[in-house]
Description:
The chain is α+β, with helices and mostly antiparallel strands. The chain contains four helices and five strands; from the N terminus they run H-E-H-E-E-E-E-H-H. It has a five-stranded mixed sheet. The relative contact order is 0.18.
Amino acid sequence: MSTPPDRPLDVLGLARDRALVEREFPIAGFARLRDRLAEPTGSAHARAQFGLAGQWPVVQLALEADVVMSCQRCLKPVRRKLTSESRLVFAAEDTPELPGDYEAIGGDPRMIDFAALVEDELLLGLPLVPRHEANEKCAPPAGVAKEAGETPSTEMRRPFVGLKDLLKH
């Protein structure tokens, strides 16, 4: 299918034709995702297989993207590969008799913003606490012991030690 990437998709037409849509999106073009990354570089590959489940238009959406986030241990960049597979049905969530194991997506199925749908799925796939894996190099924050039993090299600070004297008066 060769529609421009910024043009809305007609899901009903695509579902009737059982169309396959594959697109590459630059990560820098996703404003909400870009705010959560250390470096908005690279691209996201989306593959959508449209079809019908009974009377409902459905899509099987597969996504892959390499993103660079900030490690929450050392605050240095950490590269993660995001992969997502979703089964979506285009109908209101409160509609009775939706096909099983599909997530409902509301809105007009004749005007779906495919880029926004891809960005939503990528946001859902982000790790809650990005950090380096055990086999990757990650420096612990300052003041944290590197190994069990090892004491930090800095002297322990006691910021409230003088508070007791102030409370006596």
